[in-house]
Every structure is written in C-alpha cells, then in structure tokens.
Amino acid sequence: MKHTWQLWQEQELLRHIQASCGRLLLGLCGALLPAVPVGLLAGRTRRGNAILSPFLYLFYSLPKIIFLPLILMAMGLGNAPKIFLISCTVFFHIAIVIRDAARAIDPMQVAILRSLGATPGQTFRHLLWPACLPAILTALRTGLGIALALLFITETFASYSGLGYFIMNAMETRNYEDMYAAIITLGLLGIGFYILLDRIERKACPWK
C-alpha cells in the first residue's frame, strides 16, 4: 500500500486514472440516455414490447467483446471505440431492467392520473420516472462491474493511456509493484463509482 500511495502522488498514474474515469463515465452515460426511452417504450406499449424485446434479448445474450476488432476498424484507435463498446454492453442490461420496471407499474395508477387530466409528460414525471428510477440505479450498479471489465480489456488494445494499459505495461516490463498498485487503484475506482451511485439513490429515492 505504501508504494500505491507513492504512485498516486505521481502525475503519470493520475493521467491514466483520469483517462479511465472519463471513459467509464461517458460509457455509462452513453448507455443510460438511450436505454430510458427504449425501456419505457418496450415496457408501456404492446407494439414497442413486440418490436424491441426480441432485439434486446438477442443482443443482450451476445458477448459484445467479440465485436471489438470490428469496432476498432470502424472507429479507429482513440477513445470512441472504448466508450462505444461499454455503452453498447451496458445499454441492453439497463434497457431490460427499465422495461421490466415499467411493466410492473399498476395500470390503475396510470388510469387515475389520466382521469385527473394529467398529460403524458406529467404522468412520466410523477409516476413512470419515480417508479423506474430505483431500478435504473440498481441496473447501473450491477452494470458497473461489466463496464469495468470491458474498460480493462479495451485499454489493453492499441491504447497508450488508462489503467488497463498501465497494468499490462507494468506486467510486460516486470514492474510488479506498479502493476499491483494499478490493480488496487482500478478496484478502488469501481468501489468509488458504486458508492457514488448508492448515494445518488439515497438522495433521489428517499421513499425507498
């Protein structure tokens, strides 16, 4: 741990931590933004469920990492393919959870709001979103482990920044102290994101 602390104080490791944090955060946001409307559409409409659910199940079961060479060929060697792969993988996980949460909403509650003159926007704000938000945050927490694994793998391919690159480079040069320190750092990064999501849930869902 002493070497880990010393390494944290160096700008070189900080650069790799910032690169990994940025990719992870953008990947999760890129998954969440499209997953919310897709999950709600599949969960609240029969036609949406009939059209979208087969595709969600099909692509959810596929190991997206097998498409990494194709993604690298299409998008180059920068941050874009790494973020895109994380987003694609976590997207299907979140979308399915949102769909199930939306389907579990009591139709009577929706009917009551509509009878009171609530617009679709008001129904979303006061019923659909609060009902689905805990499931969304839970899906983000469970998807975090998947995102971290993909982050490590993608950073070992044609990359010169990030904790994945740092770990593999330290292993190849037999700098095992740096390697173990970076592994600990990657684990702490995951714990930090998990705690952040847990606190967001406590603030955003006080009724839970």
Category by helix and strand content: mainly alpha
Characterize the biggest β-sheet: none
Q: Roughly what is the average pLDDT, rounded to an integer?
A: 87
In the predicted model, the low-confidence regions spanning at least 5 consecutive residues are: none
Report the order of strands and helices.
Answer: HHHHHHHHH
CATH topology: MetI-like fold
CATH class: Mainly Alpha
How many distinct folded domains?
A: 1
The separation of the N and C termini measures: 37 Å
Q: Given the structure, what is the number of helices?
A: 9
Radius of gyration: 20 Å
Provide the CATH superfamily.
MetI-like
Share in helix: over 70%
- Work out the strand percent: under 5%
Q: Got a strand count?
A: 0
Protein architecture, described:
InterPro entries: MetI-like, MetI-like_sf. This protein is an all-alpha fold and about 210 residues long. Helices cover about 85% and strands about 0% of the residues. The protein has a single domain, classed as MetI-like fold, CATH 1.10.3720.10. It has helices spanning about 1-10, 10-45, 45-60, 70-75, 80-105, 105-115, 120-155, 165-170, 175-205. Helix 2 packs across helix 8 (about 165-170), helix 5 (about 80-105) packs antiparallel against helix 7 and helix 8 (about 165-170) runs antiparallel to helix 9 (about 175-205). The longest helix has about 35 residues, at about 120-155. The mean pLDDT is about 85.
